[in-house]
Amino acid sequence: MQKQQTSSVLIAILLIVTAAVSRVVLYPHNFSPVIGMAIFAGAVIKDKRLAFLLPIAAMFLSDVMFEVFNIAPGFWGWGQLIGYGILALITVLAFTMKKINVLNVLGYSVASSLIFFLLSNGSVWMLDKTTYAQNFSGLMDCLAAGIPFLKNGVIADLVFSAVLFGAYYLTQRSALGQKVKA
Q1: CB distance 129 to 79 below 8 Å
Q2: Which of 54, 69, 56, 83 is CA-nearest to residue 24?
Q3: In angstroms, rounded to a whole number, what is the distance separating the alpha carbons of residues 35 and 153?
Q4: pLDDT values of the chain reduced to their tens digit, one per residue, 182 residues
Q5: Is the separation of the CB atoms in 105 and 42 below 8 Å?
Q6: In angstroms, rounded to a whole number, what is the distance separating the alpha carbons of residues 78 and 10?
Q7: What is the Cα gyration radius of the chain?
Q8: DSSP readout, 37-64?
Q9: What is the DSSP letter of 47?
Q10: What is the pTM of this model?
Q11: What are the b/e assignments for 83-118, b being 16+ CB within 10 Å?
């Protein structure tokens, strides 16, 4: 039991570091693994604390790298905290994935992309009182300004969800010799 727990922690650390480095390396293209990780963690990881820790720690570590290596502002205010909250929300939503299959992973991935887009851009509109008018038209302008980032976000979420769930399925099926419930 202890060996299994140790390997789970090592796999979690590897996922966190890999996701953080990927987010930094792919930064200019808005191609991040963090939402895919939140969906995967919520759907697969039995320990709910660890499920929350994976995407939040990956996001935090990459924010530290942004700051330390002067790539972009790593810590920039309330909007960032809202982003962490949205990741937690996506993890909670993924707890409801009862059956892991291609259609569910696809649906949760697209839904999570849209949730992140709407909530993060909505928070920009609410918090940035100088860029956008504080009315419905200003909200629509803010959402429209975020649309160019949505395409890469959806693609990234689909790719990283497929990689994480696919690797999990293959690992469970072949390396561990266990039958995977689909």
Answers
A1: no
A2: 69
A3: 9
A4: 466 567 766 777 888 888 889 999 988 777 899 999 999 999 998 889 989 999 999 999 999 999 899 988 877 888 889 999 999 999 999 999 999 999 999 999 999 999 999 999 999 999 988 899 999 999 999 999 999 999 999 999 999 999 999 988 888 777 556 555 54
A5: no
A6: 32
A7: 17
A8: HHHHHHHH-SSHHHHHHHHHHHHHHHHH
A9: S
A10: 0.87
A11: beebbbbbbebbeebeebeeebbeebbeebbebbbe
Q: Which two structure tokens, joined as six digits, stand for 123?
A: 């928070």
Report the residue count for the chain. 182
Name the amino acid, one letter, at 168: Y
For residues 56 and 32, give the distance between their C-alpha atoms in angstroms, rounded to a whole number: 13
Kindly report the three-state secondary structure assignment for every residue of 109-126: HHHHHHHHHHHHHHHHHH
Task: Give the pair of three-digit tokens for residue 41.
Answer: 């963690």
In angstroms, rounded to a whole number, what is the distance separating the alpha carbons of residues 24 and 4? 30
Cα 47 to Cα 12, 59, 91: the distances in Å are 11, 19, 12
Count Cβ atoms within 10 A of the Cβ of residue 31 and give its class: 0-12 exposed, 13-18 middle, 19 or more buried. Answer: middle
The span from the CA of 65 to the CA of 72, in Å, is 9
